[in-house]
Amino acid sequence: MNTTSSNNGNNADFADFGIEGNEEKPFPVKCLPPVAQNYLREICRVDGVGEALPGACMLGTLSMALGSGVELHNGRHRVRGNLFVLGAARSGTGKSVVFNRVAQPFLDYEKSLVTNWRENVLPGLKAKIRMLKQRQDTLHKQASKHPQTSEASLQELTDIEKQLVELERGLQEPCLVFGEATREKIVQLVSLSHRETLASASAEARGCINALMGRYNAKTDEDVFVALWTGDYYKLSRIQRPDTVLHNPCLSLLWLVQPELLDQLLSVDGMSESGLLARTFFFEVSSIHQEIRTDIPINQSAVHAWQELVTWLASASYFQPTPYVFSCLPEVVELMANFNTCLLERRTPGGDLADVDIFAARWVEQTWRIMLVLLAAKQHGQPNAIVSIDTAREAIQLMDWFATQQLLLLTARREKKRDERFEVLVDVLRRKPEQSCSLRDMRRRHHFQEAEIQKIAQDHPDILVIKDLKSQGPGRPSQGVVML
């Protein structure tokens, strides 16, 4: 895919976006930040894995580290960098090894926060709570002896109650990452987190997927994940418990699973119809048989550089009172507008993406999110950075790879849907007197667009044909579809 001249308005540059050619589309390693590139190559060399798995995990880890601490103003609105990354690989292909190498710095950052909280914050919180409760008891005793409690004492009791509520909320141990959890637990964790920001990560996310698909509830939980990705208002009401309200939540996700579990998830219509899968970078990596160079240990400078980058991003972004907002060059806005125009043309009825419109409709927004992740990682030590045209092109190339993976894994589902629509069309024509119907009536009465009928007729030329039908009265003949 060529993006070098896309800023001149040439939509043809995106005509092959998301399309697999004769050869497998490689993961665009060169689009990652230099620190990530160096570490990725070391992982591939030492662990004998392909580039796609560590590359996708790196994007997911950078997204987790950023949380809601940075935003990108794209000329119309603000975009956050939280991504949902769901990778599939068979056992023995390095899932756990890669996950641990890539995500460990963020997990270690959370561990250091918990340790500091336990050693330095928790004792002080408990001491303050004890002191306030002692003062509270004293005021209560005074009030019992002197029923005419002064206004000042009542106000002090009220202030103590407020302070106790806030302090007891602080007794919740810091949590940046969760694994398998119920809907209720997830909402609770997000509500207690700083700025409603959290991540979910697992090297073997079977339990996470099972929970998502309704293991603990009578229904699936995709609605809460959609809200956490989008940042929508979400209210969870339960019997005999206070409501839990999320105002602007932010969840990043990095799950690795077995391929059959991803297939199972893709087969659930609700996961696609809700928009969850369209918001997810799902992909499958094949087994890579590369020589593992155990004679040469992993380059520790590459390891430390990656650790430093992830830790810096997390410490600089996660606990900001307000997000830092980046901007982008006008050329970037123009490039993305052309990108969007091209995808809109391909998503219209008759276009090659019409049957996966719910997925393709998210590609531009997802590209903006990738762009923010790349920019934040690249601007390590460079404040006031803005999105350059090169960073935008790199984000588009990464999105191209993920879009291609989506379409490849959706192939069977797309073919099944086309076959079902063909059967419906044939059934309609069989019930017609002359086994024919005008395109106008097919649209008005049977919800078939002309472009869809033309595509079905092209796929089944020995069964269907589009031609002019004789008019029942005066007037011109109308085009229709006829079953041969």
Topology:
Layout (H helix, E strand, L loop, with lengths): L33 H14 L4 H15 L3 E4 L4 E3 L3 E5 L6 H51 L5 H19 L7 E2 L4 H10 L4 E6 L3 H7 L9 H9 L3 E5 L2 E6 L3 E8 L1 H8 L2 H5 L6 E5 L15 H18 L6 E3 L3 H18 L9 H4 L2 H16 L10 H21 L1 H20 L5 E3 H8 L3 H10 L4 E6 L8 E6 L1
Parallel strand pairs: 1-10, 3-8, 3-9, 4-5, 5-8
Antiparallel strand pairs: 1-2, 6-7, 11-13, 12-13
Task: Describe the overall structure.
The protein has helices at 34-47, 52-66, 95-145, 151-169, 183-192, 206-212, 222-230, 259-266, 269-273, 300-317, 330-347, 357-360, 363-378, 389-409, 411-430, 439-446, 450-459, and strands at residues 70-73, 78-80, 84-88, 177-178, 197-202, 234-238, 241-246, 250-257, 280-284, 324-326, 436-438, 464-469, 478-483. The strands form four sheets. A five-stranded parallel sheet has the order 4-5-8-3-9, with helices on both faces. A three-stranded mixed sheet has the order 2-1-10, with helices on one face. It is globular. It is of the alpha/beta class and 484 residues long. Helix 1 (34-47) packs across helix 10 (300-317), helix 2 crosses helix 13 and helix 3 packs antiparallel against helix 4. The chain contains 17 helices and 13 strands. It is 52% helix and 13% strand. The longest helix has 51 residues, at 95-145.
Query: Which structural class fits the helix and strand makeup?
Result: alpha/beta
Order of helices and strands: HHEEEHHEHEHHEEEHHEHEHHHHHEHHEE
Shape summary: globular
The main sheet orders its strands as 4-5-8-3-9
**Total count of strands:** 13
What is the number of helices?
Answer: 17
User: How much strand?
Assistant: 5-15%
Low-confidence stretches: 5-9
* Global Rg: 28 Å
Distance between the termini: 41 Å
Question: Helical proportion?
Answer: 40-55%
Mean pLDDT: 88
